Every structure is written in structure tokens, then in C-alpha cells.
Amino acid sequence: MTTACHLLDLDGAQRPFVETLVSRARQFKAGVPNQGLRLRGRIVVGMFFEPSTRTATSYAVAAQRLGAVWLDFRSEESSLRKGESLEDTMRTLRAIGADAVVVRHREAGFPHLLARHFPGSVHNAGDGAHAHPTQGLADALTLVEEFGDLTGRRVLIVGDIAHSRVARSSAKAAHLLGADVVLCGPPLLLPSQPAWGFAACTSDLEAALPGADAVIMLRLQIERGTHGELPPADDVARAYGLTLQRSQAMAPHAILMHPGPVNRGLELAPELVAAERSRIAHQVENGVYVRMAALERTLGHADREHAA
Ligand code: ASP
């Protein structure tokens, strides 16, 4: 659900929503004047209950570039440990002036729950295997920068699709912009839900690689699988890892993406991480700009800017 004030997922999003945020992110990247005044005085709280490098730091940078104050809520050191309820915690954060919270949690739906207890804006920075909307938007921006119009472009997402919140959000964003999305992995790691009806599925990587304009590699989400549910990492890597040799089957113009963290030598050969066709660093950089666009929009300043 995505509303004017929250950014929870892209499940019900429409094309104009993605287009608007991507184009606003491009404006930020090109240098919008007085960026630092947009959210001056606003308070954005990062609540990361799961590890994060890229998302947490780029949200913090995005908030600060817009003039907002970024606060880290350390769940392990908070009164949640003393038995305070989530509802009371959110009330407390609001009482100290928090305008937005950016939350990551292992439970799918946690940000949606939190949004019920918080009158400000809630951003989902990753909930279980469900959604990671700003990664989807960062990937969409990366694809648009590369190809312009995505109509008819083929985006191949490879690896542990079933447990990947990135796959869901990036596939949805690319699909809304007109791309053909193909999901590739072992049958056990392909999705079963009808929500994925827009994407084609295959387990034949060799056949899928040559026709792709962009290949998004994903790591095996070992933290999501209960014991015995996931195939062994080495087996998946052997069958679906992008080796140097396999990468030669990619079209010359095709780009390589990965949301990170990369498990080098498993889903991706170490030499490919910074190869010429790699856009992994662009994805990280673009994460800052889409998060600026998303914070601005949900905190209600987008209209003011567009009118200016
Ligand atoms: N960083 C991404 C996420 O939090 C991708 C990953 O961890 O594999 O979902």
C-alpha cells in the first residue's frame, strides 16, 4: 500500500507514481536548488531491526540533504527491551517530534502495522520477503538512466526470487514502466503467488541470458529460510551464479545489477562486481536520490516544489 503519507510497498502502485518519483529523483541528481530547505526542521527516525548498509546510510544522507534531522533508533538499546509496547514507542517518538520513521524488520507487514500507530509518515526499508519499495525505485531509476523508455526492454532477475523483497519491488517498478520481467531460479526459489502474474518464470538461465537488456542478480536469502527449506548455497551458485563465462552470453549492451550485499563467488563472480557493464555502484548512488524524492513526497513538500 502506498498512500500520500506512507511508502509501504509498490503492490498497488500505478505507473504515474513510479514515473513521478523517478523523475523527481533525476531532478535531485541534477541538482535542485535549495535542497537543504525542503525538509528543514523535520525529524526522520531510522528504525532498523535488521542489518543494513546501503539503505540506512542512503536514507540518512537523503534526509540530511533535504535539511531534515536523522535520528537512529537503536532497538536493542531502547525501552522495547524493557517491555514497552510498539504502540507506546511510536507515541513516544511522535511526542518528541518525529515526522517520519524509516523501518526495516524481518516480519512482512511490520511497517504496515507501525503505520497504524504512527500519525506521521512511515517508509518501508524492507519487511521480510515482502517489499523494499525504494530499492525498486532505485533500480527503476538505474534502468531509465540506461535505456530511457523501458517499453519492450527485458529485465532478467536471477536467484532467490521467492524470498527476495527486492525482486518483488524491482520487478513491479520495472513492469509498471513497461519492461518485460523474467524471473529465473531453481523451481524451489521461484514465486508461487498470483501477485507475480505479470512476470514470466524460467529455470533455464543459459537460455534466458542472451535476450536480457538488464540482469539483476540476487543473493540467497539464507536468513529467510527455515532449516531444510533452502537448497544448499553452493548448488544454487553452481547452477545460477553469474560466472565470467556465463556473462559472455549476455548481449554486448546488457547491464548487470545487484542490490547488494554481494556474496562474491556465489551469485556473482568477483571480477564482475565492478566490470564495465556493472551498474551496482549506480544503484547505490541512485538510492540516495529516490529516497530524497520519497521523503519529500510523503512529508508533503513535493507540490510546493513543483509549483515553485
Ligand atoms: N539489501 C537488500 C535487502 O535488504 C538485498 C539483500 O539483502 O539481499 O533486501
Can you put this structure into words, describing what you see?
The protein has eleven helices and nine strands. By secondary structure, it is α/β, with parallel strands linked by helices. It has two domains: 15-131 and 285-300, 3-Layer(aba) Sandwich (Rossmann fold); 133-278, Aspartate/ornithine carbamoyltransferase (Rossmann fold). The strands form two sheets. The chain has a five-stranded parallel beta sheet, with helices on one face. A four-stranded parallel beta sheet has the order 2-1-3-4, sandwiched between helices. Helix 4 (110-117) links the parallel strand 3 and strand 4. Helix 1 crosses helix 5 (133-147) and helix 2 (54-65) packs across helix 10 (280-298). It is globular, with a radius of gyration of 19 Å. The two termini are 29 Å apart. 46% of the residues are buried. The model is unreliable at 302-308 (pLDDT under 50). It binds aspartic acid. Aspartic acid binds next to helix 6.
Structural class: alpha/beta
Order of helices and strands: HEHEHEHEHEHEEHEHHEHH
Please estimate the helix content: 25-40%
For the biggest sheet, the summary is:
5 strands, parallel
